[in-house]
Amino acid sequence: MNSENRERGAIILAGGLSSRFGSNKALQTLAGKPLICHMIERVSRVAGDIVVVLGRGEARTTYDAVLPFHVKVVNDDREGKNPLVGMVAGLGAIESDYTAILACDIPFVNSGVIELLFRRALKADAAIPRWNRQRIEPLQAVYCRAPTLRAALETLTPPDLSIEDMIMKLGRVVYVSVEDEIANIDRDLTTFFNINTREDLSTAEKILAGQAHSLEQSDPKRHQEAQRS
Question: Which CATH number is 59's domain given?
């Protein structure tokens, strides 16, 4: 791992049960391993300081059994299901000046996209993907730790409780076009594919199978190495 990666962080918000999915999505098995492990493998290519945030009082033992040793696991220290609660816990635990903040249900997060966001976030408070200059992806974005922690703590005071409110408290925010920039790296935009239901999980299995087939056709040696990993 190069020195630049060690100076970058990634916070994965994994706290609590999903009402739509019916259980904890982060530990659901996809192609033989937990969903969150797929994410960590991908994010580790561009970030070395990784923190997984669990819900308040949620046991860490199951995560400790499946996560790589270098991943730090922490719990929310506040009540509430708002993602800002997890962001505050993660930002308080991470050491890197710049960190990606990610939901736990995006198994195809693209390391090239995260690399782009890290580079665009330099000298800014955040770099956030934006669709058609409207909808944003705040939970697949890169933030500068110190100003973001301050803004998140301020936003946790009612009535401001959304990530969008927190972003408005930041200074310079770079919005990265999904269609014009990110699609050049991830043509199918599977980096934003998230799993909310059992049907989504089945779709993810099909996507993985398709990716494996494409890799086998284009680079058989690399495909064999991927199967062994």
Answer: 3.90.550.10
